[in-house]
Amino acid sequence: MFWNRVTLRPIYDSDGELVRYYGSQEDVTERKEHRERLERQNNRLSEFAGVVAHDLRSPLTVAENRLELATSEFESEHLDAARDALARSDSLITDLLTLARDGVRVRETAPVNLAAVTASCWEVVDTAEATLDIGTDCSISADYARLQQVIENLFRNAIEHGRPDTTVRVGALSDDRGFFVSDDGSGIPESSRKHVFEMGYSTTPNGTGFGLSIVSDIVAAHNWDIDIRESAAGGARFEVTI
Known about the structure:
The chain has helices at residues 29-73, 77-101, 114-124, 144-161, 211-221, and strands at residues 4-12, 18-27, 110-113, 131-134, 139-142, 167-172, 178-183, 225-230, 236-241. By secondary structure, the protein is of the alpha+beta class.
């Protein structure tokens, strides 16, 4: 038994009359079995990631609760450092779980209002004193959940690398050929722009190095392009071209 791919094609004469069929076949058993092995491995990886995330988050939650109790009784810069470390651990778990479970698969796409999804993403990101400026009401065809991941990670990047009161702006590119997320922070040096999408690359000690890598992979899975420029305010401007 084997897997066979068969292709049939009609052949017409100069008068447009069907005269015969052309047929070809290819043994794709190895390709099919390789795909099934990958699916089994991915399923096992997803299950493993879920168990690890649960087992890691449980003690982290205990540590966070104890830390809050300690903070109410004592004042120390060491407690703030511990809180930052716990927050970074949680971010790492979230990013790794995202990569392990979902990867960059794009499921069904549908029209998504950019202003609405942007506002929704802003609500779930720790924005500190930052301000959001939405300058578009256009719609794009996208996998809604994946688009959320793109925008949320771009928000986190802007806030982590900018001032506490940074302004983040979202708008449409000319001719509605895509959208941009920009900020008024310190920007990204041109020499570093080719590296920021690499897995594990971060310019801050608290960064996980996964956020922009996830953004790049999801953009590619949509068959979009992403580019980094300097914003009008001197910060970073990420342009997603559809």
